[in-house]
Amino acid sequence: MNRFESTVVTTSTAFSSGRDYMLGQLSRLRALEQRTRDASAASAARFERRGQLLPRDRLSLLLDPGAPFLEFSTLAGFGLDVPDLDKSVPGGGVITGIGYVAGTRCMVAVNDSGIDAGALQPRGLDKQLRAQELALENKLPYVQLVESAGANLLSYRVEEFVHGGNLFRNLARLSAAGLPVVTVVHGSSTAGGAYQTGLSDYIIMVRGRSRAFLAGPPLLLAATGEVASEEELGGAQMHTTVSGLGHYLAEDDREAIGMARSLVDSLGWSRHDPVHDVAFAAPRHDPAELLGIMSNDQRRPVDMREVILRLVDDSVFLEFGAGYGSATVCVNAKLEGHPLGIITNNGPIDADGAAKATRFIEACCQARVPILYLQNTTGFLVGRAQEEAGIIKQGSRMIQAVTNATVPQITVHCGASYGAGNYGMCGRGFHPRFCFSWPNARIAVMGAEQAAKTMGNVMRAQAAKGRSVDSAQIEAMEQRIIANFARQVDVFATSAHLLDDGVIDPRDTRGVLAFVLAVCREAERRTPARNSRDVARTAL
Predict the structure, then answer these.
(1) How many CB atoms lie within 10 A of CB 154?
(2) Residues paired with 372 in a beta bridge
(3) Distance between first and last Cα of the chain
(4) For strand 69-71 and strand 94-101, is the pairing parallel, antiparallel, or unpaired?
C-alpha cells in the first residue's frame, strides 16, 4: 500500500469556511430531527392515560442497550406535507433502522403513533418499503411495532392505495425467503393495515389495547348495519383465543416488547454468522477534519484522496491506474478490516476515467470486494475532444458495469452529484445497497447557473433568428430556473424525497460504513431456510 501525504491546512480560511458551513447544516439537521421527537412526545399525556409507552420508548426497550442503531431517512417528507417549512414534521410518521435485538442484527420499523395517530403518510410508505427492501437484500429479520390509524382519508390518493399493496407483498416475500417477521401490535391495525399483522410469522398482542379488523365499528355499521365494539370485533383477547390471529398475549407494552426480544433470541438467528475479528489500525488523520475539507462552493476543487485518508485503515490505500484518467480515482483499501474498492472524483468523468472505472469495477467483482462510491462530480466531461475519445461509449460501459456489478455497492454523496455523473457513480436509481449523503451534498441534472445559462443561450439563439425576446425576459427566466433548482438541489429536499437513506455527519462516515459493510458481509454468507408454507402460498 502507498501512503498519500495530506496537504490539508486546518488553519486556512477555506477549511474554516467549509467547517462552519457543514456545522451549520448539521445543526439544522439535528433541530429537524428533534422537531419530530418533540411532535411525538407531545402525545405523552394521552399515551400515559392509556397505559402505553411512546413509540420511541418502545424502540429503546426493543433495542440492546449501548448497541449501534442506524436510523434511516429522518428527513422523509420534510416540506412535502405542508408548504411552511417551519411547520413541517419530517420522518414520514415511521421510524426505521438496523439495530440489535437480543444480540441479533434486525431491520426495525416502528409506527410513530404519537404523530397523527400513526396514520400512513406518502413518504412514510416509501420509507417502509425501503426498509423491507433492505431487509430482503441483506437477509435480516424484520421486527415491526405496529400502531397505525391506517390511511389518511382526508388526503386520500388512489395511487398511494395501490402502491401500498407492496407493503404486504414484501411481508410475504420476507417470510417466504425464510426471514422472520415479528410483529408487536400495540394499538390499531385496521383495514389494509390488518394484513400488516396477518402476514407476520409471529404476532404479539396487548390485552385491552391491540385491535385488528378489516372494518372497524364505524365502517362495519355503515357497510352492514352490524353493531360491535372494538374489543368484540378485533381485540387481543378474541384474536389470541378465538380467531388464532395472535400468538402471544401481553398485559402491556413493556411485556410485549420483552416477549419480542425473547422470541428473537429463541430464533438463534445469528448462531451461524461469521465472526469478523480482524485487527485494524484507525486512520492516521482525524476524521473530524472531514468537516472542513469539502466546500459549500461546488466549483472549488477538492482532492478526494484527502477524504479517503480519513476513512480507511491506517490512512493507506493502493491507487489503481493513477496515471490514467486521473480525474477518476480508484483505490483498494480496508475499512475496519473489510476489503473495499473505492471510486471517487477529482473533477468531471472523462472517457479515460470512465474506462478505468469500468475495469476497476470488474476487478472488484472478480475478487468479491464491495465497492464504495464517494460522489463529488459535475458529471461527464463534454466537448469535441471527449466525443472523439468515445465519452458516450466509455460512459455507457461504466454505467453497464455499475448496473451489473455482482458485489455490494455503497454510495455516499460527499459533494456535487450532477448529470449522468450521478448515474455512473451509482446514484439511487442504480440501487446501491446503501446510499447516504453529507449535509453539503447537491443532486441535480446540472448546476443551477449552468441550467439557467443553457436556457438563456437557447433563447438568445432564437432571438438571433428573429423571434422577439428581450434581455429582461431572458434574465427573468434565468432567475426562475435558478430559484427552482435551489429549492430541489439542497440535501434537505433530496433526502425528503428519499433519494438517499439518510443524511450523516461526515465524522460518523467511517462508523456507518463499517456497520453496513458488516451487514453486507453477513448477508453474503447467510443462507436462511426458506419457508415452504409461504412459498406455496405466494405461488398461488
Answers:
(1) 7
(2) 342, 410
(3) 55
(4) antiparallel
